[in-house]
Amino acid sequence: MKAKTVPSVCPHDCPSACALDVEMAAPDRVARIRGADMPYTAGVICAKVARYAELVHSDQRITTPLRRTGPKGSGQFEPVSWDEALDEAAAAYRAAAERFGAESVWAYHYGGTLGRVQQTASVRLRDALGWSRQLDTICGHIGGTGWKAGVGAMSGLDPREMAEADLIVAWGCNMVATQVGAMHWVTKAVRERGAKMVVIDPYRNPTAERADMHLRLRPGTDGALACAVMNVMLAEGLADRAFLAELTDFTPEVEAHLSSRTPAWAAAVTGLTEAEIVAFARLYGSTKRAFLRLGYGFTRQRNGAAAMHAVTALPAVSGAWRHPGGGAAFSAWKNFSFLKEEDVLEVAGVRTRSFDMSRLGAVLTGNPADLQGGPPVKAMLIMGTNPAVVAPDSLAVRQGLLRDDLFLAVHEQRMTETARYADIIFPATTMLEHDDLYVSYGHTFLQVGKAVMAPVGEARSNCWLTSQLAGGQPSFVRGGGVGGGRPSADGFGAARCGRGSRQALGRLLPTVRGHAFPERLRPFRQALPLRSRLGGDG
Ligand code: SF4
Questions:
Q1: Of 190, 400, 406, 425, which cross-links 66 as Cys (Cβ 3.0–4.6 Å)?
Q2: Is the alpha carbon torsion for 144, 145, 149, 153 positive or negative?
Q3: pLDDT score, position 333
Q4: What is the pLDDT of residues 403-418, one digit of tens each?
Q5: What is d(CA 468, CA 446) in angstroms, rounded to the nearest whole number?
Q6: Hey, is 441 helix, strand or coil?
Q7: Which residue, by CA, sits nearest to atom 8 of ligand 1?
Q8: Atom 3 in ligand 1: residue holding the nearest Cα
Q9: Average pLDDT, the chain
Q10: What is the mean pLDDT of residues 42-48?
């Protein structure tokens, strides 16, 4: 039998959001996965996802709902039916809400899938039922805050513009290892334009080994370097003063501040030499087509937001934004804000308390400041993340998850460290077993990944599960925002998954088969509200 190849999309928390070709050995058996011929990822995928078939068909998959039979955390479970598991979970959520208030329930989620419909399923459930919300602080929040302070919008350039650059600066990112698609465009610029590459990173990583210049600064000192680069550009006539005057809020006070941030000052802070700082500043300031690829190193340091803010000011001072191949990119996530407008993501107007997800341990162990005067957390639903080993202060997290008075349901593909603490485990589908829409924070393509096979065992998607929890318990639903009738089993849960989601998808799906490649979905360069607020203390 000739193998059938069907399109899909990688759902991982990774900027590439690679387009995939899935070769099927049989209707329910994946043979292998390759990169698809898509303009940005261009057939490249990482070794991990090339072996995804092993995960889908692993004998470690959880294939039925499970109920805890031993002490919490013991890993002792028994299979139960979906009806039993759903009834038990719904009863626990309802009991917590009735006794302690709806905010005593917390649906905790993160990037196990970045599919816009499945990832946000618990957000819609939580908002419809008035449960506590969460601030998604665990990854890009700090960098994003600095970017928005400097640029004004969480949008980014199409990274394919790197091919039109004469200088590419990888700042706080190891592109060779973590952005496999992006290196294609860097290589193109190097080969076809003789572009130079600079890496700014405390580590001598594989990307640095390919660079023309590596600035190996002390961790957390990026803002000082950026200020000194601006100091040199302003002092040596390399600044685009017309651009600053026309499109930024640059002021004489800011310039006076930067005049004190000399290369000698920054050398003492960063550990670089004055000569290195000046050489980079002159190279950057004299290269108008200079593309800053800013990475998640900024999100892994205490000064990350201030540093990112300072670095976003560089293309405003140099005027690089004016030129093709010039400017900066951090996250392109909000290039796709139309999804929010279509109300796919959340139920509007909900204002329950928000927990800092990075403070999970403190919340679960009852720290009053984290509870914000509200009730303790008595019941949780965890999807798409493994906080027992991911969230900070893991001892407190585990202490909290061990609480006998906390009901915990976990939706998972396999027995993770967090799932071992669960009272009920719901078996989860993989990307190949449910439908979704994929945006990317590293490129500008919208893609559709349809299910290519039936769910393994009794696995069900995030949307299906949350729809069942809501619709299966009508009295459980506040204000009728969710509910009514039996949800469908197609992964989107029909109208249950947020007002408008079905309609939004319905408008998109007929236009594509597999991948959609609308070129420059949003004309970023024109739409960007350029405001470089240089007044931070860098
Ligand atoms: S590089 Fe990233 S997006 Fe591409 S296949 Fe690997 S994990 Fe998925």
A1: 425
A2: positive
A3: 77
A4: 999 999 999 999 999 9
A5: 28
A6: coil
A7: 10
A8: 17
A9: 85
A10: 91
Give the integer Cα–Cα distance in Å for 393 and 4.
47
- Binding site membership of 48 for ligand 1 (Cβ less than 6 Å): yes
Residue 180 CA: nearest ligand 1 atom is 1
What is the 18 CA–ligand 1 centroid distance (Å)? 5
Tens of pLDDT, residues 71-83: 999 999 999 999 9
Q: How far apart (Å, rounded) are the C-alpha atoms in residues 437 and 513?
A: 12
Query: The tokens of 126 are what?
Result: 């939580």
Q: How far apart are CA 79 and CA 409, in angstroms?
A: 14
- CA–centroid distance, 15 to ligand 1, in Å, is 8
Q: Which CATH number fits domain 66-138+338-432+451-469: 3.40.1050.10, 3.30.429.10, 3.40.50.740, 3.30.1330.10?
A: 3.40.50.740
Of 13, 40, 48, 52, the residue with max ligand 1 atoms within 8 A of its CB, to mutate for a pocket test, comes to 48
Each domain of the chain, given as residue ranges in start order, spans: 66-138+338-432+451-469, 157-330+501-531
- In CATH terms, is domain 157-330+501-531 a member of 3.40.228.10? yes
In this structure, are residues 33 and 20 in contact, taking their beta carbons and an 8 Å threshold? yes
Question: In whole angstroms, what is the distance from residue 20 CA to residue 162 CA?
Answer: 23
- Å from CA of 150 to ligand 1 middle: 29
For ligand 1, is residue 277 a contact (CB within 6 Å)? no
Does ligand 1 have an atom closer than 6 angstroms to the CB of 180?
Answer: yes
CATH topology identical between 66-138+338-432+451-469 and 157-330+501-531:
no
Across the range 80-90, mean pLDDT stands at: 95
Residue 55 in contact with residue 460, Cβ under 8 Å?
A: no
Query: Is the predicted pLDDT of residue 538 greater than 90, yes or no?
Result: no
pLDDT over 70, % of the chain: 84
Burial of 267 from C-beta contacts in 10 A (0-12 / 13-18 / 19+)? buried
Distance CA 303, CA 312 (A): 14
Residue 42 near ligand 1, beta carbon < 6 Å = no
CA–centroid distance, residue 179 to ligand 1 (Å) = 8
Q: Say whether 213 sits in a helix, a strand or coil.
A: strand
pTM: 0.85
Atom number of ligand 1 nearest to Cα 41: 4
Q: Which residues pair with 261 in a beta bridge?
A: none
Q: How far is the CA of 183 from the centre of ligand 1 (A)?
A: 13
Q: Which two tokens stand for residue 255?
A: 């310039």
* pLDDT surpassing 60 at residue 338: no
Using the mean position of ligand 1's atoms as its centre, give its distance from the Cα of residue 16 in Å. 6
Least confident of 85-89, 127-131, 512-516: 512-516
Between 314 and 479, the higher pLDDT residue: 314
Q: Averaged over 272-277, what is the pLDDT?
A: 98
CA 389 to chain centre: 18
